[in-house]
Amino acid sequence: MLSIRVLVALACCTLPLAAQHEAGADGRSKHPAMGDAKAIAAGQKLYATSCTGCHGATAEGGRGPNLRQRGMWHPLDDDALFGTIKRGVPGADMPGLNLPDEQVWQIAAFVRSLTAPAIDTHVPGDTAAGESVFWGKAKCGSCHAVRGKGGTFGPDLGNVASMKAAEDIRAAIVDPTGDGFGRYRGVTVKLKSGRSLKGLARNHNNYSIQVQQPDGNLELLHMGDVEVLVFSKTSLMPGDFRERLTKEELDNLVAYLSRQSVRTAVK
Ligand code: HEC
Ligand code: HEC
């Protein structure tokens, strides 16, 4: 009897905590910082002081893994992500953080925003202004279609916000050729066995490379078997948008594309 009362009391105490988590679109609980533009911006500042040393200024990785490529670290749910950042990774090289929980959540929100599809995060910027840059000044629409309108030379961007994080969209615009994530970097590989193949380079590192072939097949090659590797030097997309557009125009473009999804946007 007594123990039941204790349980009831405990359940009451945890209610205010639970109330902080609003239900996400999938019905799972979600901390208010996750996906929140202000929290993400605050988390980015904290990330710069506490995490860049090991994970890199743009989270590209270093002593710690690349935090922008989903495949590099196992996907953690929100609570596990919070716990990892707060307590570190015992046994590995990552220290815990001595910061209030609110700030740890902000960092978690920032780290999540790096991989979350853009449609699931708040992306600052003026989407209407971005839309006019897309079809007007930057002529993106001469190569890309959105909802049936526009060119077909480049990939259709009508669902880009479900496929890419906001920062990946930005990287695709300002640095289509850069090593960024090289999703579309053409490569020709000659193997020691004499076989050659051509395709798009994915997840290239010192040990292996994945080559996506025109039929969509992904083949993993060990660098030890590779005789020659030649990357195509340029993307087919113009590489000078950083010079041709102002920072504000770029922000607005990213905001506009971050809403292009077959799913509905977060409020
Ligand atoms: C001293 C270096 C170092 C610092 C500082 C550091 N990390 Fe790490 N981090 C690592 C290493 C090493 C790993 C890989 C651990 C492992 O082997 O799973 C890692 C792993 C991670 C992972 C993936 C965990 C998993 O289970 O896949 C996340 C997320 C992460 N770090 C976020 C952060 C954030 C956010 C900060 C700043 C608050 C931070 N790290 C600071 C070194 C560091
Ligand atoms: C001359 C044609 C051309 C123009 C103009 C152009 N792009 Fe591209 N774009 C491409 C091609 C081709 C690709 C795919 C190959 C690559 O990335 O190298 C691409 C890729 C992209 C991607 C990545 C898509 C994905 O699914 O990964 C985004 C985002 C993008 N472009 C946005 C833009 C924006 C925004 C503009 C205008 C500022 C623009 N592009 C202008 C041809 C173009």
Walkthrough of the structure:
- With 267 residues, the chain is an alpha+beta fold.
- It has 3 domains: 17-115, Cytochrome c-like domain (Cytochrome Bc1 Complex, Chain D, domain 2), CATH 1.10.760; 127-177 and 237-257, Orthogonal Bundle (Cytochrome Bc1 Complex, Chain D, domain 2), CATH 1.10.760; 185-231, SH3 type barrels, CATH 2.30.30.
- The chain has 10 helices and 9 strands.
- The chain has helices at residues 2-20, 37-50, 52-55, 78-87, 101-115, 127-135, 160-163, 166-174, 241-244, 247-257; strands at residues 22-23, 29-30, 145-146, 149-150, 185-191, 196-202, 208-212, 218-222, 226-231.
- The strands form 3 sheets. A 5-stranded antiparallel sheet has the order 8-7-6-5-9, with no helix packed on it.
- A hairpin with a 5-residue loop joins strand 7 (208-212) and strand 8.
- Helix 4 (78-87) crosses helix 5 (101-115) and helix 6 packs across helix 10.
- The structure holds heme C (2 copies).
- One heme C binds at residues 134, 138-140, 142-144, 153-155, 157, 160, 169, 172-173, 176, 183-184, 235-238, 241, 253.
